[in-house]
Design goal:
Distance between the termini of chain B: 40 Å
Largest sheet of chain A: 7 strands, mixed
Oligomer: heterodimer
Largest interface: A-B, 23 and 20 residues
Distance between the termini of chain A: 33 Å
Structural class of chain A: mainly beta
Number of helices of chain B: 0
Helix content of chain A: under 10%
Amino acid sequence: GAVVSQHPSWVICKSGTSVKIECRSLDFQATTMFWYRQFPKQSLMLMATSNEGSKATYEQGVEKDKFLINHASLTLSTLTVTSAHPEDSSFYICSAFRGNTEAFFGQGTRLTVV
Amino acid sequence: GQNIDQPTEMTATEGAIVQINCTYQTSGFNGLFWYQQHAGEAPTFLSYNVLDGLEEKGRFSSFLSRSKGYSYLLLKELQMKDSASYLCAVRDGDYKLSFGAGTTVTVRA
C-alpha cells in the first residue's frame, strides 16, 4: 500500500482562490519532504524542500508567497497555491525518503484552475 | 545544480531488451535513481545506485559509473505494460532529487 498519501487527487478551482494540498507519510516520520510540479509530457521540477519545524527552501524561480509550504509535523506537509491562476494548472507531487534510499511519491494532485 | 540528459523516446518490440542511458553533471552526488511513470500517475521506484557497478532486480538492471557521470537502465524481456516514461534522477548532498526529462518507451507487439 501507499506509504506517502497525497490529498486531494484532483481539484478544480476558480481563478483567484487558494487550494491546499496535503502530503502525509503514513508509516514513517519525514523531517524533509519535497514538492514537485509536472507539466504534460515534461519531467518533474522540484519546487521546494519542506523542512519540519523550519522554513521551506524554494528553488530558483518559485514564488514563496504564491506557493506556501507548511511542515507542521513529522508526518504532514502542506502546499497551498494562493490566488491560483490558469497557468498554475499542473500536476503537483510530493515525495519523502524513508531511510536513505527509499524515496516514495504521493499519488499526485491534478490542479485545474478555471 | 544538476544537468541530467536522457533520450526522449525509444521504441522496442515485446520480448526484446532496451537500454536507456543517462548522463549527468552534478555539484554533489548522493545516489542515482530510476523511476517508472505511467501517464497521469506518480513515479514508482525502480532502482538505486550509489556505488559503481550493476544492480540487478528481476527484469530491470541499472548501472552506474561515477567517474563518467553515466548510468543506464536495462529492461529485459519487454512486456506491453513496460510502455511508460522512465526517469533518471540524481540526488545531491541535500537529499534533493533532480530529474531528467524522461524517456518514453513504447513497446510494440
